[in-house]
Amino acid sequence: MNRRILTHLVFIVGVVALGSLIGIFNIPGEWYQSLQKPPFNPPNWIFGPVWTALYVLIGMAGARTWITARTSARMTIWFVQMVLNFLWSPAFFGFEKPALGLVVIVPLLIAILAFIRASWPFDRIAAWLFVPYALWVAFATLLNTSIVVLN
């Protein structure tokens, strides 16, 4: 199998699998249902499909960066944003602490934007792959902030 294809598969499957496992172990329960939420809170069923699609895009951007610049600052930023991404669900749902989720999601959004900016001159496709992710996490940051304020 072509090394580029294999790298893409490893990144995509790895990101989707880890994201899915974190989701399975941090399912919103009664605690989350009891929280006051803003009127723009989406239905719970939307989060799984949206995150799966985003994880595919994140994996593709990571693979592209790994292939062309594995020791670069943008690859480091990619890994940092993945760590923050995977920490958010346990912080918010696992510990049942929306404020802690906010402490994680703000640097996550900054890291996503930093990846887009760092990638733009070198790999516009990788940068564009992160745009839907940035938009979703910006929305999630607003949602997380609203939940903190309302509760």
Automatic annotation (TrEMBL):
Ranges that cross the membrane: 5-25, 45-63, 75-93, 99-116, 128-150
Major location (coarse): membrane
Gene3D superfamilies attached to this UniProt entry: TspO/MBR protein (1.20.1260.100)
GO BP of this protein: tetrapyrrole metabolic process
Keywords, alphabetical: Membrane, Transmembrane, Transmembrane helix
Family designation: Belongs to the TspO/BZRP family.
Record protein name field: Tryptophan-rich sensory protein
Species name: Neorhizobium lilium
